[in-house]
Design a protein that fits this description.
single chain, alpha+beta, Aminopeptidase, four-stranded antiparallel beta sheet, 7 strands
Length: 165
């Protein structure tokens, strides 16, 4: 089934908050935080436009990954890199809810993210993953990622750094 990426809507709150709770158990921050949903949507819109960004944030698209009308995950596509993203986060962050994994959705999501960045003029895309995240490393390599190195983050986590393009 093909994946489409779209901005979140008011109707997505329940399912995306459920995914956030599921992924928090793995230490993954799916949403920005516990703010009211209308504030979350406003922040997503500001970041997409690159206006009124909080300190440390860059212009970015937060998009819901959907299959047959149902959310299966999300991507964060950062239009540029700041020092933190260059060192640890990369251009793209993605997550698939546990019940939708191992169906090729993450690969499609990353491919679509790389295409979006190309539309924005980004020719080399940095994608990182935890060194022990074999599934994510496989997705990145399938999409053309070339391992640059493995670095330890400020939090002491070993991260693989891949470049696509």
């Amino acid at each position: 089934m093909p994946v489409t990426l779209r901005p979140p809507t008011p109707a997505d709150e329940t399912v995306l908050r459920r995914m956030h709770t599921q992924l928090a158990k793995d230490g993954f921050e799916f949403l920005f935080g516990p703010e009211p949903w209308d504030e979350f949507l406003a922040q997503v819109a500001r970041e997409s436009r690159g206006t009124d960004l909080p300190p440390g944030r860059v212009p970015a698209d937060f998009l819901v990954a959907e299959v047959d009308g149902a959310p299966v995950g999300r991507v964060s596509i950062r239009h540029e890199l700041n020092d933190f993203l260059m060192a640890e986060g990369g251009h793209v962050g993605y997550a698939v809810a546990p019940q939708f994994r191992r169906r090729g959705y993450a690969t499609q999501m990353l491919r679509l993210s790389v295409q979006r960045l190309a539309e924005l003029g980004v020719s080399r895309v940095l994608v990182t993953c935890d060194d022990d995240n074999v599934a994510s490393a496989s997705v990145i390599e399938t999409v053309g990622g070339v391992l640059e190195d493995v670095r330890t983050t400020s939090a002491g986590v070993a991260k693989r750094r891949y470049w696509i393009g």
